[in-house]
Amino acid sequence: MALRVAVVGAGSAGLISIKICVDEGLEPVCFESSDDIGGLWKFKDSPEPERTSIYRSLVVNTSKEMMCFSDFPMPADYPNYMHNSQLLQYFRLYAKHFDLLKYIHFQTTVRSVTPTADFSLSGQWDIVTVNRDGKEERQVFDAVLVCSGHYTQPILPLSEFPGHETFSGRCLHSWDYKDADAFRGKRVVVVGIGNSGGDIAVEISRAAEKTFLSTRQGAWVVSRMSNNGLPLDMTSITRLNNILMKLLPSNLVNWVAERSLNQKYDHRLYGLRPRHRLLDRRPLVNCDLPDQILQGALVMKPNLRAFRDSGVVFEDGTVEENIDAVVFCTGYKASFPFLPPALSGGPDKELTLYKRLFPPSLSKPTLAVMGLFQTKGPIQPIMEMQARWAVRVFSGLSRLPSEKKMLKVIECDTKRNSKSYPCPRQAALYVDYMSYLDFMAGEIGVRPNLLRLMLRDPVLWVKVAFGPCTPYQYRLTGPGQWAGARQAILTQWDRVTQPFRTRAVPEPESRSSVLFSPLLLVLGGAVITAVKSPKSLRIF
Could you say which residues form the signal peptide (predicted)? Predict the structure, then answer.
């Protein structure tokens, strides 16, 4: 009898989890608390409690070829960096193509997930759900995939700033932000320089009288575009670059990369330069922020220290008066209230996860938490690989180490990451993009064998070894092999260039080169003859 797997959430992670369960012969049942798929990428005009929320103008920071599902390329005419509405449309195409909607129970909330009485033998879970009519239902499942995301509990640190109680302006979190209309003609402070903070500060600065971006540490700012206007991740995330990064001294690589960035705009001059080196943390991806600073519409400031009646004080002692609003882009707290409290054994009561996926304390590895990680690369391919690995573990086709070994790995990973992320929580969350993908691929049996590929298919080997590490690489062989993976890799650059082909660009007129014109040849010959003749050296 097929294993029944509960999938909590129908966002991108939930959809891929359903599909992989079906592929592996499992029986998925997905519970989605809202009335639609998409999760984070489903825009709504007003935020709803306990749900994710995005702003109207949000555009992805990962190009379409790097973030697509590994066996379902995005349409060739899609832009390389999509608006959130277009990404949601891609999810709809995916769900329709693989007939996934029939497995989803919409407007059904998971209230609790608890081990059954015989969990040590069966590994099963007792799950209580509540549907749209308030009816409670209890079911038993063989495994659970948690895909509910962790952007539902905004962190609004007002208590850290004296004077906020009497501040006359408005304080809000980026979770509440939708567009800049409410800030037109006003003076606004944005706190935090993550990707959301950068986007929101830029957007508000186009409408506000003045916008201040307050940052504790600064950030290295990179554009979505690389050389020749190509997507940055397509040119930088390659297996060759990954090898070079491990072989070359990190100080040298940082120096070269930082020098290249500073040639575009000096990070020190612009007030952006952080304390950390470029490769130590994920950079801020924003094409417009330096330009807004150059125009004076956006002003960089140090960390916020306190509020005044109508103004704010920064750590350097400077004061800005007549501030109308302060937008906190200060992140989220991961919250899974339906899970057993015993799984939250971290320093701040956060989930402790082996390889950012499996709780090591479980006697039976039949629960996995998706998406709870940070990385410098695309998010989507990692979540897909997590789902593939988790399903293999549930089915007994892949085994985990002992609890002692898993805890040791967690400790070592956190210690290694603490050099770049002093905060223990952030250090525990970080994973190296390609190393993490290849590790999971090795556990599943889908990691590309470059030597074998070079001998059997040199053309494909060149694309895999030296080209972008697109998700199709993990469908070339092994479980879940996709017959279209090779062709998808060979044509990936065609889909990158397709959106640009909207105008026939005229070729330069063909003219004979001036270097080979008859007149120039005659004059050149005369000069050479004169130089060779001694008589030509006479002075008249």
Answer: none
Work out the burial of residue 289: count CB atoms within 10 Å of its CB; fewer than 13 is exposed, 13-18 middle, 19 or more buried.
Answer: buried
The pLDDT tens digits for 290-348 are 999 999 999 999 999 999 999 999 999 999 999 999 999 999 998 899 999 999 866 66
How far lies 232's CA from each of 74, 198, 225, 516, in Å?
Answer: 18, 18, 5, 41
Q: Give the rounded percent of residues in the chain with a pLDDT score beyond 90.
A: 86
CATH of the domain at 31: 3.50.50.60
| Same-domain pairing of 178 and 189 | yes
DSSP, res 250 = H
The arithmetic mean of pLDDT across residues 5-23, rounded, is 98
- The C-alpha atoms of residue 9 and residue 91 are separated, in whole angstroms, by 14
> Looking at 303, 326, 349, which one is the last position of a domain?
326
Closest by CA to 154, choosing from 183, 182, 177, 180, is 177
CB 368 within 8 A of CB 392: no
**pLDDT of 350:** 81
Judge whether 537 lies within some domain: no
Q: How far apart are CA 297 and CA 289, in angstroms?
A: 10
145 and 72 in contact (C-beta within 8 Å)? no
The domain in which residue 314 lies consists of 154-326
Please answer whether residues 257 and 278 qualify as being in contact, where contact means their C-beta atoms are separated by less than 8 angstroms: yes
pLDDT for 488 beyond 80: yes
Contacting residues for 407 by C-beta, under 8 A, at least 6 apart: 352, 354, 360
Question: What does the pLDDT read at residue 519?
Answer: 56
Q: In 3D, which of 153, 430, 408, 401 has the Cα closest to residue 282?
A: 430
Q: How many CA atoms lie within 13 A of 224 on its CB side?
A: 18
Express each pLDDT in 459-481 by its tens digit: 999 999 999 999 999 999 999 99
Inside any domain, residue 30: yes
Retrieve residue 351's tokens.
């989930």
Q: Are residues 316 and 212 in the same domain?
A: yes
Query: Cα-flanking dihedrals φ and ψ of residue 128, to 5°?
Result: -110, 125
**3-state DSSP percent of the chain in helix, strand and coil, to 5:** 40, 15, 45
State both tokens at 126.
């007792």
Identify which of 159, 192, 156 has the alpha carbon closest to the alpha carbon of residue 176.
156
Spell out the residues 6+ positions from residue 412 whose beta carbon is closer than 8 angstroms to its own: none
Q: Are strands 284-285 and 312-314 parallel, antiparallel or unpaired?
A: unpaired
| In a shared domain, residues 100 and 32 | yes
**Is 499 a member of any domain?**
no
pLDDT, tens only, 360-372: 999 999 999 999 9
pLDDT digits (tens, 9 = 90+) for 387-413: 999 999 999 999 999 999 999 999 999
Same domain, 212 and 261: yes
The pLDDT value recorded for residue 10 is 97
